[in-house]
Amino acid sequence: MKHHFCNIKNQVKLNLTEMKKLLAIGIFTVISIYGYSQKQVIDSLKEVIGNHEGKLNALDDRVLVNEGDLAKLNKIKVSGYIQAQWESYGADLEKTNGYSNTFYIRRARIKFTYEAADGVKFVLQPDFSTGNLALKDAYTVVNLPKLKNLTLWVGQMNRPNYDVEYSSSSRELLERARVTTTIYPGEREIGAKLEYNGIKIPVLLQVMMMNGNFTGTQAKDVDSRKDVMARFVYSVKLPAAGVGIDFGANHYFGSNLAKTNKYVKNSDGTLDSLNNAWRYLDKHWTGGEIRIYADVLGGMSIKGEYVAGINSVASTVASTATMAQKKASPNLYNNFAGCYITLVKNIGAKNQAVVRYDYYDPNTKLSGDAAGNAIYYKTWAFAWQYYLNDNIRLTAQYTMPKNETNASNPSDIKDNLFTIRVQAKF
Amino acid sequence: MKHIKIFSIMLILAVMASATAFSQSKITVKGSDTMVILAQRWAELYMKNNPQTTIQVTGGGSGVGITALINGTTDICNASRPMKQTEIEKLKARYNTLGVEIPCAKDGVTIFLNEANKVTELTLKQISDIYTAKIRNWKELGGVDAEIRLYGRENSSGTYTYLHDEVVKADYASTVQSLPGTAAVVNAVKKDVNGIGYGGAAYAVGVKYAKVKKDESSTGYVPSAETIANNQYPITRYLYMYLRNRPTGETKKYIDWILGVEGQRVVTEIGYFPVK
Question: What is the pLDDT of residues A178-192, one digit of tens each?
Answer without folding.
Answer: 999 999 999 999 999
